[in-house]
Amino acid sequence: MWYNKNMSVNIYKKTYDYLSDLFPNATCELEHNSAFELLIALILSAQCTDARVNKVTKVLFKEYNTPQKLAVAKQEDIQKIIYSCGFYHNKAKNLIACSKDILAKYNGEVPSSLQELQTLAGVGRKTANVVYSLWFKGDAIAVDTHVFRVSNRIGIAHGDTPLEVENELMQNYDKSQWSMLHYLLVLFGRYHCTAKNPDCVNCKLKDICEYYLQRKK
Ligand code: SF4
To answer: Which residues form the catalytic set?
Structure first.
């Protein structure tokens, strides 16, 4: 499994440098103009593409772009707008509950700490990490399906759970790289190292990638 353990190449640096070259302007692809809009877009993005979420939030945020407005919305009205994102019943419920939490616990402002963010309805560790790093400029690595898969494939982290992968990535990379690493791995997983059909032929990580080297044996 640990093909790279005794090799002289620094797999962490090589991966970071290669992905930075591939995506020099890597950032979150969800459109937003406030911490609240980012939070809502992230809740909607579970099991849904960013492109679809961006279409939906264009409509949703015309009327419901603050916790004050969304907290008093009718669930059926929100469901109709967000229907195409999937899981619309639960997502609508969470959007409203999250808005109510922000009003009740944080005076209508999205909280800026990881711990507080995770007290909001519908907000797990991954979503909290993204809001914390992208909007509040904190250092965090959100582990979504792409980060999880790509990290394990290359071998820059090994874990059975997102938390294990997150902890290992944090050990293997400098704090200043954590947030960017998230975006780089997301984009690489989305467009190159895809779940079903990774583009290994054109990938410059072939010589260090555990997944590729294992399959070649
Ligand atoms: S070699 Fe293939 S599996 Fe490995 S990182 Fe590149 S695309 Fe992904």
So the answer is: 126, 144
